[in-house]
Amino acid sequence: MEYKGSCHCGKISFVVQGELTEALSCNCSICQRKGSLLWFLPTDQVDISVQEDALASYQFNKHVIDHHFCTSCGIHPYAVGVDPKGNKMYALNIRCIEDLDLESINVNHFDGSSV
Length: 115
Fold this sequence. Notes:
Metal Binding Protein, Guanine Nucleotide Exchange Factor, Chain A
């Protein structure tokens, strides 16, 4: 299935090929504040488009995840990290996906504040 999403102003957008059945809600200090619901995907399933000067990044704690956000509207559509096997992964904020029925998605909770 194909999903499309973006930040609020549209300067960062993405197209995803995959089956969205569940997302992760993390309570670490940044995810708790952002309210993100994350869908983890290999990079070959996601096409991200960013207009010039629209992307900023933030790292904290162990500095292993790049939390990307739009410099214009401030929305955080995705992050970049690696899975346990060392493969580059995207963590998409499903709240940025167009016309998604959030009630139909199973949300798993992760205690990131204790990691």
